[in-house]
Amino acid sequence: MAPDKRKRSRVHAGFDAVLSCGGIEKFPVRVKNLSLKGMLCDQDSRIGEMKECVVTFELSEAIVFRIESRVIRNDDKGLALDFESMDEKAFFHLRNLVRYNSEDPDTIDQELTVPAFSPKKNG
Asked: pTM higher than 0.85, yes or no?
């Protein structure tokens, strides 16, 4: 098995979210694991790969946030999403979710000092 190249820790999760693809279709999903960079859900054959979507987390009536994402895999291992964009509020809540479910919350904050993306080269 190839070494894990992830720059963000994944934490086990067991809560629901809603995936909206194309702004019309909405799919309830069960989150298996979560990181600051993406998440893995139960597989859903109705959702295609390489599709832009928005994940909505409703933690309570007062705490609802959205993250722009892209489906990168949907197979027997699950539905994998890569987070592409979020506002400050969403990042705050996502970070808290990941920290809360982590065995070592301080590691999550330490990871923020290392870029998750390689800078794009111009030219």
From this structure: no
